[in-house]
Amino acid sequence: MSHDHQHHSHQVSGKNMGIAIFLNILITVGQVIGGIISGSMALLTDALHNFSDVIALLLSYISNRIAKRKSTAKQTYGYKRAEILSAFVNAAVLIGIAVFLIVEAAQRFFNPVAIRSNIVIWFALASIVINFISVLMLQKDSKESMNIKSAYLHLLTDVLTSVAVLIGGLLMKYYSVFWVDPLLSILIAFYLIFSSYRLLMDTIKILMQFTPSDIDLEKINEKISGISAIKNMHHVHVWQLDENIKHFEAHVDLKEDIPMSQFQKILNQIDEILHGFDIYHVNIQPEYNRDDSKDMIVQHGK
Fold first, then answer.
1. What is the pTM of this model?
2. Is beta strand 230-240 parallel, antiparallel or unpaired with respect to 246-254?
3. Mean pLDDT by 10 residues, the chain (302 residues)
4. Which CATH number fits domain 14-207: 2.60.220.30, 1.20.1510.10, 1.10.260.40, 1.20.1270.60?
């Protein structure tokens, strides 16, 4: 059995995350107060979006720390999936909030009310500045972690939605088009759904242990089966533990009954092939004249 793995780690700045959380709490509280006083649905929508950012950042920070815990006899994989679970929750919650806001804003759209636009403008400006600072602080970490990327996307969409709210405030101030407020809420909500859907699907695929999208099993099978000593590769499983670590396991049917010392050379060839697919955690079961299914993908229960 081959067991070769290379783990990739990423460090997240606790200070940067802490500052971003604090700033988003300020934005959320301020926009809720501003939304109530001004009567702006768009500002309240942006406030709820910012509140989801607070939750996203907290989950990201906590799960990143949990993921670094060492493996034990009871948790042999450690807590690597903590970040994936966090990213899944963040994306799912954001989509849920967006659907709720669409329903609420649709009702307001057909019954627009006068909005105190000056309050909307100033709070939108404050949100743009503070969220942009948070985005800059997390930009580097977002390139290394799906979990941090989910929080980063929350903040980035907040910058964009706050710009939209600012434009809406200016239109209401100078042209009295108050229907633009619920319209903005609906547009922001749809944008949140669009930006979160792919992340949600990516995390679901990992949690369901689907074959990573960048892995071509047919090509792997062709290369490994091409090793002269191997008759067949079957019972293949490929999955991701987290966004970086890929696992591969398979049975290989050997042409001859060989000693383990000779099989080790074959394992080295298999490892070299799989490293080319960025797979470093490999388990291979050698077989010789074993009566079992030789299908590459064996259905459970057989």
1. 0.73
2. antiparallel
3. 43 66 87 87 80 73 74 81 82 84 83 85 89 79 67 76 88 88 85 82 92 93 94 94 89 94 94 95 94 84 52
4. 1.20.1510.10
